[in-house]
Amino acid sequence: MTHPADSDLLPRLLAGEQGAFRELIGAYQSTMRAVAYAIVGQRYADEVVQDAWLAVVRNLNGFQQRSSLKTWLLTIVANAARSRLKQNRREVLLDDLPAPHGTVDDARFAEDGHWAARVPAWHEDSPEALLTEDELRECLEKTLLSLSEMQRGVLLLRERQGLELEEICNLLEISLSNVRVLLHRGRLKLFATLEHFEETGQC
């Protein structure tokens, strides 16, 4: 979804326009949930996002526009998630990551971390092809659920929400090297699932 311009949306929000709040939620809800998910996991993500929206409503008049509305919202949800994590005395682990100087090397990815070659699109429209596409989508979702919470969160923030790596680092408070490793491992698992499905037709 295209994010509305702050200059258009903010005055309407400050005026208390309900339609503006609906637009705000529609534009940022999924990204905020992905941030919360990466920090506290599935069990508490929705509660954290609800708490974050309450904080947004309470503090909107104090928003000083030193950052974008998006950055402000994501910072609020990240802080809410960390507060919840501390409250639950729960530790989020980063998998068995290599040292920061370690490198990840795979021909599927370019140096900037993007796919070196775009994954083939599925554009068939026959009933059989559509069924296969649905099966593949379900298979990929199962693979996502098999990832660790932090790994899945980083992957979703990058691939589905389009956040830059530096944004993810700041929100999750982890190093760039850790973000790259988590992202790389998640992509490899999804790609392995895709390759297996194309070869066998099964998940």
Describe this entry's structure for a reader:
The chain has 203 residues and is mostly helical. It contains eight helices and no strands. Helix 5 (127-146) runs antiparallel to helix 8 (176-200). The longest helix has 25 residues, at 176-200. The chain is elongated, with a radius of gyration of 19 Å. The two termini are 29 Å apart. Mean pLDDT is 80; it is low at 99-104.
- Rg (CA only): 19 Å
Mean pLDDT figure: 80
How far apart are the first and last residues' alpha carbons, in Å?
29 Å
Number of helices: 8
> In percent terms, what proportion of residues is strand?
under 5%
The major pleated sheet works out as: none
Number of strands: 0
Helix content range: 55-70%
Summarize the structure.
The protein is mostly helical and 203 residues long. It has helices at residues 6-14, 18-40, 42-59, 69-88, 127-146, 149-160, 165-172, 176-200.
Write the layout of secondary structure elements.
Layout: H1 6-14, H2 18-40, H3 42-59, H4 69-88, H5 127-146, H6 149-160, H7 165-172, H8 176-200
Helix pairs in contact: 1-2, 2-3, 2-4, 2-6, 3-4, 5-8, 6-8
Structural descriptors:
203 residues, mainly alpha, 8 helices, 67% helix
